Amino acid sequence: MSESFATLLKRLENKTATVGIIGLGYVGLPLARALANAGFRVLGFDIDSGKVQKLNSGRSFIQQIPDQAIVTMRAQGFEATDRFERLHEPDAILICVPTPLTAAREPDLTYVVNSAQAIASRLRCGQLVVLESTTYPTTTRGVMLPILESSGLTAGRDFFVAFSPEREDPGNPTHSVSHIPKVVGGLDELSSQAACALYAAIVPQVVRVSTPEVAEACKILENTYRAINIALVNEMKILYDRMGIDIWEVIDAAKTKPFGFQAFYPGPGLGGHCIPLDPFYLTWIARHYGMNTRFIELAGEVNTAMPRFVISKLTDALNDAGKPVRGSRIAILGMAYKKDVDDPRESPSFELLDLLLKKGAQVSYSDPHIPTLPRMRHWPHLEPMNSSPLTAEYLAAQDAVLIATDHTAFDYNFIVKHSRLVIDTRNATKAVREGREKIVRA
Question: Which candidate in 96, 196, 218, 274 is catalytic?
Fold first, then answer.
């Protein structure tokens, strides 16, 4: 055991270590909070200087983390910075950056590579580097490790490397960082020990696996499992819609079975940073091993087709009312990718908005969690737009109201009462009794 490892392990176990987190978004900031609450000094790195300034002044930019939590973190020693030359300061560095897809649906590891290069330029003996960003198996060893070792230091001797996939469920207070078991795969024995010692301070259970590849594959399996099952129920929704069968009633009946069935629910498309993207990471790496993952790719096709199915249902409903889509006033309720969060990443609502605008509709939106639409990477052409107050007058002025996200804050009885036509993609109006003739399931 090297002296540098012994020093690192001691600091991690007695919580005198400084932990650096690259990427202070929906994954990095909750992780920083958990580590600060556990007693570690946390130094957060982000390229967004505005975000850094806001955090250092005690203000949050994520709904699930209130301003007071940032104030508490600051009192505990948390600091945000955009000065990456300070990467030599932390004893452990956790990489929590986006891993999007290119236009060709191939992995874009730009943020991971840039982070590794920044670390390599300041890497010192005794540091632990953990990649948390979801990616395809072999990324840690095949992409990140060579960059880190370009520093002249050797992994497993001079510094230590592991992969531990983030498990974050935004908006779910019972599934926060501190309540979810953490999978850890180290590059070697010492790396595994160090990473496990760090995470043991903040999670209820550390699940140690043999290699980074196993940990990477674990995360991809978790999200591909969800994507495939959502695709199945989305396809069933389309079939049962043609047959005049209520898919939501079918699911409610099926989930009474106490074994062999887990309920998944249909929607207007997949959202969030993980589930719509991760299966494509797996299909990409599979091709490098001479295999086509037809089952996974088919699921992706089903899920990506759902926004167009919703628009077709809306178009038919307007036609039945004697109105074309062109020129119609349509309100989208909910731009977040899931209920009760302010996270718009990969939200199908943006595609719904884009499709409607291309058909000539006059589109507005209402979302209590997203007062202004942010610029989105896939939708740079969309004009800036502000959320409209959900008043009786606003609803009555619309030719159709499209429920894309079933926020708890929405009063669905009120919405149906004052709307002419409601397109419900989430079964949000299931408890509404009056005005059901206005509701179309999509």
Answer: 274
